[in-house]
Write a structure and sequence with these properties.
The complex is a heterodimer of chains A (179) and B (447).
Chain A: H1 14-24, H2 36-46, H3 53-63, H4 67-76, E1 88-93, H5 96-100, H6 103-114, E2 127-132, E3 144-146, E4 149-151, H7 156-168
Chain B: H1 18-23, H2 28-36, H3 39-49, H4 61-66, E1 77-82, H5 91-98, H6 100-114, E2 118-123, H7 128-143, E3 159-164, H8 174-181, E4 205-209, H9 210-222, H10 224-227, E5 231-232, E6 235-236, E7 238-245, E8 251-256, H11 261-266, E9 280-284, E10 292-294, H12 295-299, H13 311-314, H14 318-321, E11 329-334, H15 339-353, H16 359-376, H17 382-395, H18 403-427, H19 429-433
Parallel strand pairs in B: 1-2, 1-4, 2-3, 7-11
Antiparallel strand pairs in B: 5-6, 7-8, 9-10, 9-11
Bound molecules: flavin mononucleotide (FMN), iron/sulfur cluster and FE2/S2 (inorganic) cluster (FES).
């Protein structure tokens, strides 16, 4: 069989579409573009943690705007991954207040454990390691975020435990049951 | 123990649910305002309370409300700024997570005062889990007749929605936030026109911080006169302080404005002193954008008076020897902290977050980051230290929005108060880049 690169089917599930329609109802009829960020979040959760050009085109179609209007927004905001990512994206806070509580050491520990550098994905495809700026969790640093979950007050032992738990985790979408 | 006005019931089991919140006096301000007060009376009450914006700038809330353009057929909007991204600040997240109904109550009472029929809470995208808590609480408020059509039979109707951002510090700046809410890149707008005249969708708009709005219910329920009894002078009421860094008890504390800084840092009621039995080196008192102060100057003003947790006392001495209360992001550095490295992470932050619209900010933040990186990594020159100060000066005041100033001040202040430490890095690159090496003024034979 010919193994071409898998492209995500750009078809939102019914659950995702219901979420999208709910957001669209929040804004005046002539201001539907306001829903662009909420929809990009939904798209990222729906299609494996990143938004491809095809996905962005689909978002433009839903909002009835030009694709470029979606591209310029998606590239401005740091939360949207524009390239494929691992099963989980570890977003470690690197800003001063977390540094005071040991984020440098946490980042180094994760790089060693995962065998990859910041910005890269581990060989088993389970983890992409990213650094981000202050996540409003400075009192419980060092910390990181995975999707909607915060992992706080991390030390090497709890970070390792977190990695094990995440490996075993079945990723669910916000509109699915048992989310 | 100081009296808590916002967080009195924060640890009550189930306080995040409508029923428990209501049982503890919740939504009283909505009943009082909608049934017994005109919108103008609510505005006057907030004005009289002396409440100042808790987002960072400290602008009087009631006065801001009274600037809102008069109704002329256009909708008016209230937008809550829940973008909380200022490094060191995590009070709004705490409040929304634990007391979602307090913010919703504040939004209803404030929207009524401003004549808004649709209001938004703009929350930073990283806090989607908090967005879900708020949405659940909003659904409860609708189900109980506190949101939607004809609230409590008063004839007043309000819709309230939560809107997630996408990860961009600049969207905390109010005009960038409005651009973002309109579905665009978060580029700050030129002012004037101010949002009070030309805000969301070109309509009159008020943007207020989470904590500011969450304070309104107490003021309306208990009166402005009661509120003004707390605090000192123009620093009325209480303030949430998010305490972090090298202290024993990091967390969010609601303090009555006027607590001495020394008590805040060392008493067990608050930060509980410096961790690991160490000494304190410096404090950033109001979020990363405000000037850092060394131990001597954070505890006492240049005149030798005790420094207090008020807008006025913290800024005593201007930028030469003072700082600001800012957002209440209070973080403490112990004597093992490398000021150069810490300042570099902040410069990197501002460079990363500059929206790129104005060249002094876009280029200057990158320049400061690069120079600090060079000094921190042992490749700095003596003239780099003055270069930092000169770049900071050229950014300050020359940009569309205050992010430029916010980027310049921390660097300028670090050099102002810790120049010897920068010099030590330049003169002794090998010692400075050794693992765990920290400049120590008292012990240093190298300097
Ligand atoms: C770069 C920048 C970031 C800001 N971030 C925030 C923020 O995260 N939260 C906030 O409430 N205000 C923030 N502000 C201040 C807002 O522009 C605005 O003054 C505030 O929301 C007004 O609310 P208040 O009067 O209730 O304090 C920021 C300002 C700037 C210049
Ligand atoms: S000061 Fe910086 S963040 Fe603000 S508008 Fe200019 S470039 Fe953008
Ligand atoms: S600095 Fe890491 S959460 Fe604020």
């Amino acid at each position: 069989m010919d193994q071409t690169v898998e492209k995500p089917q750009v078809q939102f599930s019914e659950g995702a579409m219901a979420e999208i329609r709910r957001y669209l109802s929040h804004y005046p009829a002539d201001r539907q573009k306001s829903a662009i960020l909420p929809i990009l979040h939904i798209a990222q959760a729906e299609f494996g943690g990143w938004v491809s050009p095809e996905v962005m085109d689909k978002v433009a179609e839903i909002l009835n705007i030009q694709p470029i209007e979606v591209y310029e927004v998606a590239t401005f905001y740091t939360m949207f991954n524009l390239k494929p990512v691992g099963k989980h994206v570890l977003e470690v806070c690197r800003t001063g207040p977390c540094m005071l509580r040991g984020s440098d050491q946490l980042i180094e520990h994760l790089e060693n454990r995962l065998g990859c550098k910041v910005g890269e994905t581990s060989a088993d495809g389970n983890f992409t390691l990213k650094t981000v700026e202050c996540l409003a969790s400075c009192g419980t640093g060092p910390m990181l975020q995975v999707r909607e979950q915060f992992y706080e007050n991390l030390d090497p032992a709890s970070a390792d435990q977190m990695l094990e738990d995440l490996k075993a985790l079945t990723v669910r979408k916000p509109w699915e049951e048992n989310y | 123990m100081g009296r808590k006005l916002l967080t009195e019931h924060i640890n009550v089991e189930g306080i995040h649910t409508f029923d428990v919140y209501r049982k503890h006096g919740g939504y009283a301000s909505v009943e009082k305002a909608l049934k017994t007060m005109s919108p103008e009376e609510v505005v006057e009450e907030v004005k009289a309370s002396g409440l100042r914006g808790r987002g960072g700038a400290g602008f009087p809330t009631g006065m801001k409300w009274s600037f809102l353009a008069k109704p002329e057929g256009k909708p008016r909007y209230l937008v809550c700024n829940a973008d909380e991204s200022e490094p060191g600040t995590f009070k709004d997240r705490y409040l929304m997570e634990k007391l979602p109904h307090l913010l919703i109550e504040g939004m209803i009472t404030s929207s009524y005062a401003l004549g808004a029929r649709t209001s938004y809470i703009y929350i930073r995208g990283e806090l989607l889990y908090v967005l879900r808590i708020l949405e659940k609480a909003i659904a409860e408020a609708y189900a109980n007749g506190f949101l939607g059509e004809n609230i409590l039979g008063s004839g007043y109707s309000l819709d309230l929605h939560v809107h997630p951002g996408g990860g961009a510090y600049i969207c905390g700046e109010e005009t960038a936030l409005l651009e973002s809410l309109e579905g665009k890149r978060g580029n700050p707008r030129n002012k004037p026109p101010f949002p009070a005249v030309w805000g969301l969708y070109g309509c009159p708009t008020v943007v207020n911080n989470v904590e500011s709005i969450a304070t309104v219910p107490w003021i309306i329920t208990n009166t402005a006169a009661e509120y003004a009894k707390f605090g000192i002078g123009r620093s009325a009421g209480t303030k949430l302080i998010s305490a972090g860094g090298n202290i024993n008890k990091p967390g969010v504390y609601e303090i009555e404005l006027g607590v001495p800084v020394e008590e805040f840092i060392y008493s067990d009621e608050y930060c509980g002193g410096i961790w690991k039995g160490r000494d304190m080196k410096a404090v950033i008192a109001g979020g990363s954008s405000v000037p850092i102060l060394p131990k001597e100057l954070i505890l006492k003003t240049a005149n030798g008076e005790d420094r207090l947790m008020t807008y006025e006392s913290l800024s005593d001495g201007g930028f030469a020897t003072g700082t600001m209360l800012g957002s209440g992001g209070f973080f403490v550095m112990d004597d093992q902290t490398c000021i150069v490295r810490h300042t570099w992470t902040l410069a990197r932050f501002y460079h990363h977050e500059s929206c790129g619209q104005c060249s002094p900010c876009r280029e200057g933040t990158g320049w400061m980051e690069k120079v600090l990186h060079r000094i921190e990594h042992g490749h700095g020159h003596m003239h780099d230290i003055d270069l930092l100060v000169s770049v900071a000066k050229q950014i300050e005041g020359n940009t569309i929005c205050p992010l430029g100033d916010a980027a310049a001040w921390p660097v300028a202040a670090a050099v102002r108060h810790f120049r010897e430490e920068f010099e030590w890095h330049v003169k002794h690159p090998q010692a400075a880049t050794a693992p765990g090496a920290v400049f120590n003024k008292a012990e240093s034979v190298l300097a």
